[in-house]
Amino acid sequence: MADSSFDIVSKVERQEVDNALNQTAKEISQRYDFKGVGASISWSGGDKILLEANSEDRVKAVLDVFQSKLIKRGISLKALDAGEPQLSGKEYKIFASIQEGISQENAKKVAKIIRDEGPKGVKAQVQGEELRVSSKSRDDLQTVIALLKGKDFDFALQFVNYR
């Protein structure tokens, strides 16, 4: 019998992030507490997100609205890397980015947890920015998924290609 396997990835649906950003921009334009503070959110150069407002509190509030929209769209906040508010002229700005892919270092951490705490006979291989987990027993794979869901990593994980 062939081995069963699944992949562990860290991917974010770009369209969902775009939708969350557009919803945030719409809410900022309509909310009373954001009137006249120059609050805005937009894409800036590819995959960077720029949040702006005229006070540190307002720019943090814009970030808070954006985070709530991401959660509603099923995107883990672990994928959002937001910096600290920076004063630029009269504006406060926060640069944020969406993290995708599992770094080699993080993939090795996950593979070590699977080796140390997972069932015997489960193999984990790093393949670029993802991790392939395989075993003869599908039950062992389910156990590995449960084990990893119980751990708190500082990056988002998804389990795909289960077969």
TrEMBL record:
Functional note: Nucleotide-binding protein.
CDD domains: YajQ_like
Cellular component terms (Gene Ontology): cytosol
Recorded family membership: Belongs to the YajQ family.
Keywords: Nucleotide-binding
This protein's record includes keyword Cell membrane: no
SUPFAM superfamilies: YajQ-like
Residues in coiled coil: none
Pfam families referenced in this protein's UniProt entry, alphabetically: YajQ
Name this polypeptide is given: Nucleotide-binding protein GCM10010145_36100
Alphabetical list of InterPro entries matching this protein: UPF0234-like_C, UPF0234_N, YajQ-like_sf, YajQ/Smlt4090-like
NCBIfam families: PRK05412.1
Gene Ontology MF term list: nucleotide binding
Organism domain of life: Bacteria
Nucleotide-binding among keywords: yes
